[in-house]
Design goal:
The protein is built from 13 helices and 12 strands. The chain is α/β, with parallel strands linked by helices. Bound molecules: pyridoxal-5'-phosphate (PLP).
Length: 389
């Protein structure tokens, strides 16, 4: 049997060799520390779990959910946007519930782009923007994010013939994997640009609530008139340690929200209503003290990593958000060589930057979602290994 031709378009799995080395080290009894995965290690707050338990026990929640998100969930999301960003949203026409942002990112791509269309994708980036555009049969135009451009795409560099066919522009700030942040001025420029070229601006705000040294990320929808061209993905996964729960929302541009709703009613049946109720509890039970506590933890871990990198003569500015540290490989190694080196020589897994796009070559990503004692141990081992370079 042969799979659909589109499956061959997907990029090859890049971690084969890395996985082989990890398994080999584990088989020899080594204690391997994985700093490669961005998934919060701390539990979901207790009051959210209790809200789920209560909601799960109600029989009316056992039936099919509202495909677009329950009216109360969508109202809570719009109230949250108003409280958090001073953005006014119509809950019914400008918000839609999602089974995690990933689902919405994928389905919006299918709703917006097909053969002949172009999707503008920054790189290095979260792989879903690229892979879904390819699966949907669209062409991808990559926008390099480099240290030189502050990890912000240079929209003036896009050729006119590409712009003519472009349907969507992805942006993701605070950024995975680079940890970079964007200002409201950058968002203003992007909104103007997309208005001028009739492109849907798609903002992935997965790391909205993570901020260090007092930093607080803005929403693209804070820009005057942004809703004319912009849709934003807000996920509960990272801020509330709820990656396994699968709940998020897309908000903003009506056309995009409606298109997502149409895709969803043909593809899935929405988020378990009990999970939506728990998400309402998360957003309405004064979340800022929890964010503060969580951010203090990540900031302390960030400083552990930065200090260790400093001792390894790797100097990077301290990121203001996300739980990633993005840094150049030591000793002029490629990303892949460096991640294999650290598994072999330190039993520490760090993500090769090149797996997030060609401009990630020569970089590595450390995730801070690992207990602090383990992180300290991992950094000590990396420092010792790098002395043997
Ligand atoms: C984690 C992550 C997501 C996925 O969020 P879910 O809501 O859990 O699907 C989306 N975008 C980026 C950039 C991420 O890092």
């Amino acid at each position: 049997m042969k799979l659909a031709a589109r499956m061959e378009q997907l990029p090859p799995y890049l971690f084969l060799e890395l996985d082989r080395i990890i398994e080999q080290q584990q088989a020899q009894g080594y204690d391997v520390i994985n700093l490669g995965i961005g998934d919060p290690d701390q539990p979901t707050p207790q009051h959210i779990i209790q809200a789920l338990q209560l909601a799960a026990s109600r029989p009316q929640n056992h039936r099919y959910p509202n495909y677009l998100g329950s009216p109360s969930f969508r109202r809570v999301v719009s109230e949250w946007y108003n409280q958090r960003f001073k953005v006014v949203l119509d809950p019914l026409n400008e918000t839609v519930g999602l089974i995690g942002s990933k689902e919405g990112i994928a389905h919006l791509t299918w709703a917006m782009a097909g053969p002949g269309d172009v999707v503008l994708v920054p790189e290095p980036s979260y792989p879903v923007y690229y892979t879904q555009a390819i699966l949907a049969g669209a062409d991808v135009h990559l926008l390099p994010l480099t240290r030189e451009n502050g990890f912000l795409p240079d929209l003036t560099q896009i050729p006119t013939d590409i712009l003519f066919r472009a349907k969507m522009l992805w942006i993701n700030y605070p950024n995975n994997p680079t940890g970079a942040v964007a200002s409201l001025d950058f968002y203003r420029g992007a909104v103007d640009f997309c208005r001028q070229h009739d492109i849907l601006l798609c903002s992935d705000l997965a790391y909205a609530e993570i901020g260090f040294d007092g930093y607080r990320a803005p929403s693209v929808l804070e820009v005057e008139g942004a809703k004319d061209v912009a849709v934003e993905f807000y996920s509960l996964s990272k801020p509330f340690n709820m990656t396994g729960w699968r709940v998020a929302a897309a908000v903003g541009n009506r056309l995009a929200v409606e298109a997502l709703g149409t895709m969803k009613s043909n593809l899935d049946s929405g988020v378990f209503t009990a999970v939506q109720e728990a998400a309402e509890t998360a957003l309405t039970t004064e979340p800022f003290p929890f964010f503060q506590k969580q951010n203090a933890l990540y900031q302390a871990r960030r400083d552990i990593v930065l200090n260790a990198l400093n001792r390894m003569n790797i100097e990077i500015p301290a990121p203001l958000s996300t739980f990633y540290i993005w840094f150049p490989t030591p000793g002029n190694m490629t990303s892949s060589e460096a991640s294999q080196f650290f598994v072999q020589e330190a039993n520490v897994v760090v993500a090769p930057g090149s797996s997030y796009g060609p401009s990630g070559e020569g970089w590595l990503r450390i995730s801070l979602t690992c207990p602090s004692e383990r992180l300290i141990e991992a950094m000590n081992r990396m420092e010792a290994a790098s002395k043997r370079l």
